[in-house]
Design brief:
Helix content: over 70%
Radius of gyration: 38 Å
Oligomer: single chain
Structural class: mainly alpha
Number of strands: 0
Distance between the termini: 120 Å
Strand content: under 5%
Length: 696
């Protein structure tokens, strides 16, 4: 027997299939397309519908079937138009043609759709369908008029929901709720109508009414599995985890639509995450293999990620992200994704999750606070404050919402708003140490130092082991310039030296006790060589004029913290400037000092102290022309006496005596309005300088 190679066999099969397909009649091709359409194999279904059309292009059903089986909008429109032109003038075909029609003017598109509507049989026309047509073009008022007429003729829950939806899209949610409540009173709502009612009640923040709605559907025999699933969602949002678990457990493994069961199981997983119940999430994972259910791609990975969060495993967030990318878009998956990303500080991804939530869900107070927290974390304080403010105006607040609003307001220097939120917190939680602590911080910001000291001193006396109270007390004493009190307070303190060492050193500096400040800094550095500590010590060293030591310190700081500093351009510029100044004052590596100062200018071009250092470096390196050009182009070059002195010196060293004299005269004209911190520069010194230059 002759042996065929595998490739030959495949080719023969393909050819056989094509030959058989060629012999199909248009009826057989259409029937084959229908079979494939039922199995959701749309691509192959379309190929058979197209074959039927090629054989008999006048049959409108073939064109309509082809339109429904392709995702290409151009082909959908072409086939729908052909179906219509061949006599299939139905409302469904009209809807597709209207949705895809290309008109530059929306009014023209609407008029065209109405003209098509006039061509369908009278038996297919109705007020409801005309309302459906208007809604395609966002003609909400026209849709409502038609649907209300339809409701008068033949009341139904579906029409009630349509009318409510149109009002909601107009921004009239109160009217939408009123329509549904009226239909409820007239006993016109079915299961879907009641579900819509719960959404609008939630949007209107009428949460106490939700339970009565679910009880009513139970009494009316409308409490189906779908209704129970919605009840689960609302119980979960109201943080009634016991009820939510009971309801969703009963639905998680019943014979039903795959997506329905997935929604129930996802809510169970969310409950277990919220209650940190690792044992039950493990049982849920195990049950996927034991129960006779068809898993959905990504489902098991979702539950494994939840288990990982409870055990603080590093790959949990990535596993959640991977599962989310393949799972259907489900609200509680998005909420889980938002919260876990917020915990990790991934505010952009957290916001992506919150923004995917349905409006009724994100309006829940604790969800809204989470959303506002993510906005604040991502730097969008204005929107976060607006959300919280609107929530509080509706008399809906929690401790978390008030504290978040207060903290964001403080961060944006909105003292009145932060004080208002704090006043409510103090009224509700007047004995809470955390609330009292923030009262002290607000008092500091308002300049009420005596009040702040009184509050924080009492807190520290009541809670001597709470170091933040003791540190804040020392900071208030420093602001009050009570430096001896700081020295006395730390003498008997049980706080770690690493926490108060820098405040003590600064107090010694203010008291003129530099030796004790120096030894304090050395002790502090021996325990804490952080960037903050080293910088403060370096600044102290510059202040006492030990520039050689300062050079060593700044070099150490740059080498050790270079990567961190480059993320903070302001701090980096200041360090480069001070390093350059120390090099200049110690007469070390002047060329390197100029490079450091130049980099600092690039980072903070408007800073006058940095400009002073750079001009000084240019003079030290005898780069007079560059110094002149730099100062003349600087925004404050003609207003700063310091920079003008450098300019005059540069002209003088360049032998441009006339311009040097004019510059010194400009400086003299600015005195004494602008005093200098550099003796012996004063009017007499400048006059002597001008006299010396003009008598050469």
């Amino acid at each position: 027997m002759k042996k065929y190679q595998p490739l030959t066999i495949v080719c023969l099969l393909v050819l056989t299939t094509l030959c058989c397909s060629d012999r199909l009649s248009h009826e057989e091709a259409f029937a084959r397309g229908n079979e494939l359409f039922k199995t959701n194999n749309l691509r192959r279904a379309y190929s058979y519908y197209k074959r039927a059309i090629d054989i008999n292009g006048s049959e409108p059903l073939y064109h309509w079937a082809a339109a429904k089986s392709t995702s290409n909008h151009n082909l959908v429109f072409i086939h729908a138009q052909s179906a219509w032109d061949n006599g299939l003038k139905t409302f469904d075909v009209l809807t597709v043609m209207s949705a895809l029609s290309q008109f530059a003017d929306s009014n023209q598109a609407l008029q065209h759709a109405i003209s098509l509507y006039g061509q369908i049989p009278d038996s297919a026309k109705s007020h409801e369908r005309l309302g459906d047509l208007f809604i395609l073009f966002s003609q909400y008022d026209s849709s409502i008029i038609q649907w209300k007429k339809a409701q008068e003729e033949s009341p139904s829950s579906a029409i009630c929901v349509k009318i409510a939806g149109a009002y909601a899209r107009k921004g009239e949610s109160d009217q939408a709720l009123s329509v549904l409540e009226s239909c409820r009173k007239e006993k016109q709502l079915d299961e879907q109508g009641y579900i819509a009612l719960t959404y609008f009640l939630a949007m209107d923040h009428q949460y106490p009414k939700l339970d009565s709605v679910f009880h009513e559907t139970y009494r009316l025999g409308l409490y189906t599995d779908a209704m129970q699933l919605e009840h689960t969602s609302f119980a979960l949002l109201q943080r009634d985890f016991a009820l939510a678990e009971s309801l969703s457990t009963a639905l998680a493994f019943i014979e039903c639509d795959r997506l329905f069961g997935l929604r129930a199981r996802v809510m169970l997983a969310f409950i277990y995450r919220s209650t940190n119940n690792h044992e039950k999430i493990q049982d849920l994972i195990s049950s996927l293999d034991k129960e006779n259910i068809r898993q959905i791609e990504g489902e098991k990975e979702l539950y494994l990620s939840v288990a990982g969060f409870m055990r603080q495993k590093n790959n949990s967030l990535q596993m959640l992200s991977d599962a989310r990318s393949v799972l259907p878009r489900l609200p509680f998956v998005e909420l889980l994704y938002a919260r876990e990303n917020y915990i990790e500080g991934n505010y952009k991804e957290a916001l992506a999750g919150y923004r995917n939530l349905p409006d009724f869900l994100v309006q829940y107070p604790h969800v809204l606070v989470g959303y506002a927290s993510a906005l604040g974390g991502g730097g969008n304080d204005e929107q976060a404050l607006a959300l919280l403010s609107d929530m509080h105006r509706r008399k809906m607040f929690s401790r978390n919402s008030l504290e978040l609003f207060r903290d964001l307001a403080l961060r944006n220097n909105l003292i009145h708003e932060s004080v208002s939120a704090q006043a409510v917190l103090e009224k509700l939680y007047k004995d809470d140490p955390g609330v009292r602590y923030v009262s002290a911080i607000i008092a500091i910001q308002k300049g009420q130092l005596e009040k702040a000291l009184s509050i924080v001193s009492d807190l520290y006396e009541e809670y001597p082991r709470e170091n933040q109270f003791g540190i804040l007390m020392l900071r208030v004493l420093y602001l009050k310039e009570e430096y001896n009190a700081i020295v006395e307070a730390v003498r008997f303190s049980e706080m770690p030296f690493s926490l108060y060492g820098s405040i003590l050193a600064r107090a010694f500096i203010q008291l003129g006790r530099d030796d004790q400040a120096h030894s304090t800094y050395l002790d502090l550095i021996s325990k804490d060589e952080s960037l903050t500590t080293l910088l403060e010590y370096a600044q102290f060293i510059v202040g006492i004029g030990d520039f050689n030591k300062a050079v060593t310190l700044f070099d150490k700081i740059l080498n050790r913290f270079s990567a961190d500093l480059q993320n903070d351009s302001t701090k980096y510029a200041v360090i480069l400037n001070n390093f350059a100044w120390s090099l200049l004052q110690s007469n070390q590596n002047l060329t390197f000092a100029q490079k450091l100062a130049e980099k600092a200018v690039e980072l903070l071009p408007g800073n006058i102290q940095i400009a002073d250092t750079y001009a000084t470096a240019l003079l030290f390196n005898k780069r007079y022309r560059r110094c002149i050009k730099f100062i003349q182009s600087h925004p404050q070059g003609s207003q700063s006496i310091t920079l003008l002195l450098h300019l005059a010196r540069a002209f003088e060293e360049s032998a441009d005596i006339n311009r040097a004299v004019r510059t010194y005269r400009d400086i003299s004209a600015m005195l004494p309005e602008k005093q200098l911190d550099h003796p012996p520069v004063n009017s007499q010194w400048i006059d002597e300088k001008i006299a010396l230059l003009t008598t050469r």
